[in-house]
Each structure stands twice: as structure tokens, then as C-alpha cells.
Amino acid sequence: MIAALEPQATAPEPPQPRDVIAELQQTVSASRLGLWHSCRLKFYFRYVRRLKKAPTPSMHAGSSVHAVLQQWNLSRWRREAFATDRFKGVFDEQWQALQAESKINWGGEEDSECSSSWRALENYFLETPIKAEERPEAVEVAVSANLSHHGLPTLIGVIDLVRSGGRIVDFKLVGKTPDSELVVHTHGTQLTAYSILYRDATDREEGGLELHHLVRTKTPKLIVTSLPPATELQVTRLYRSMESYQEGVARQDFVPSPGFACMGCEYFNECRQWNP
Fold it and tell me: Do residues 138 and 159 lie in contact, with contact meaning Cβ atoms separated by under 8 Å?
């Protein structure tokens, strides 16, 4: 008697473009909006084709620093004593764990990338405007806002930190000192999105917005940009941006936007081979 063969497990079929398009029209995040408006073909490669790419050294450094800041904020929320050694351990662990399955092209600069990132964190702990006794309202919280009454998709996002008094904080690790006017403009979509998400989740206006730039220059710096709550004009601009996204995705308007940013784009080769 021949034993019956067990059916072989099969890999799930990759999502079809039409299914992905429908999914992308249901929700949108600030990062997705930002990419859409910077280069629609790059958006296509990342979110429709879902082409996986290894993170760049700067992306890896940012993720490692972000993980430490998350633990620092959680530690303050739990009323735990500050301990530099513990956070250095978190940093080292994250630095290794996040690249375990990624082939990052360090170009021989991993040690300097690692040391400059940790120095930026050490400097932040010394210069941060957040007092040790200040307990956060929320840390790394995922939120969403149903905007269907505006004819828009659901807005989603993850807020790094909400300080006491409803001040929304976003952390950035950068390689040079940011220009204050430029960062307000370039991060306007993200900050306004956080305002809308906070208001929807709490039924109250945020106390303000802050960008904390950890600058990992030879001598690390901290640049804090404080902003008032989002204005009605900023909210309207975000809604118009979401409308443009919604209509463009529906048309599958995935065209390239050649420019200086192409030099560091992980999809450069795919873009050069693009056939409309």
C-alpha cells in the first residue's frame, strides 16, 4: 500500500498590481505622501512592485539611534533611572541586529558611522530640552484618522514622542546642520499629518510641534526647531496633497522625476530601465 503524499506547501502568490493599487488608496502615511510627491516611479518600485533594497548606511544609523531614543522615552515613562551604559548596550545590540539580514554597503566606513551616531546620542542626552522627570504622554504610538468625510483615505502614522502638554516630537539624525526655514518646509507634510492624527485621537489640539535634529558632525550638535500647532492653511495644503496622491494612484501615474536626488536612489538601475 502506498502512503498518501502530504500536499506540498506553496508560497503565496504575490499581490497583483490592481490589488496593491486598491490597498494604497485606502490608507496613506506622511512618508508615502512625501515619496509620491518627490518621485512617483520610486513610489511604484517601493510600494507597488515592493522591490526590497538593503538600507543605506545613513538609514541604518537612523534606525539604530531611533531605537535608543524610543527606549529612553519609555524609560522616562516608567520612571526608571537614567543609565548611559544601558542605552549604549541597546545601541550596540540594535546596530548588529538591524543589519543581520541586510547587506549594507559600508564602503569601509562602518566604524565611523557607528561612532558618530553614538556620539550624537551622547550629546543629545546632555543637551536635550526634555527634563528627566518629564513623563511622556505617548511613545512610538501608531495612530490613524478616518478622513472619509473629506473624501480622503485614512491617514496613518507613528508618532515618535508626545511630550507633556501635547507637544509632538519627531527625531532626525542628520550629517550636517539643518537650515531652520528649509526643515520647516520640507517636513511640513509630516508635521501637519501628526497634528491631524493627534487631534483625531485625543479630541484636542496639540500643544505644539518639535523637530529634534541630532547632528553627527565631528563635534555633535542638537538643533531643536519648535513650531506652533498646525494652522488651517497647513491642514488644507495636506488635504490637497492627499487628493493629488489619491487621483494619481488611481491613474497609475508612475513617472520618474530626474534630479539631484537620483544619485543616492536605491532604484537608480531600475529607473534607467523603465519602459513606459
Answer: yes
CA angle 136, 203, 245 (to 5 degrees): 95
For 17, 25, 139, the CA distances from 20, given in Å and listed in that order, are 5, 9, 30
Q: What is the distance between the alpha carbons of residues 53 and 128, in angstroms, rounded to a whole number? A: 34
The tally of domains found in the chain comes to 1
- Say how far apart CA 39 and CA 262 lie, in whole Å: 10
AA letter at 140 = E
Give residue 193's identity as a one-letter amino acid code.
A
Residues 195-225: tens digit of each pLDDT:
999 999 999 999 999 999 999 999 999 999 9
Encoded amino acid at 209, one letter: L
Please report, for residues 2, 12, 13, the alpha-carbon distance to residue 7 in angstroms, rounded to integers and kept in the order given. 15, 15, 17
Strand, helix or coil at 171? strand
Angle between helices 57-77 and 110-127 (to 10 degrees): 30
Tens digits of residue pLDDT in 14-31: 556 678 999 999 999 999
Q: CA-to-CA distance for 219 and 217, rounded, in angstroms?
A: 5
Supply the range of the domain harboring residue 205. Answer: 23-30+52-249
CA 92 to chain centre: 21
CATH of the domain at 162: 3.90.320.10
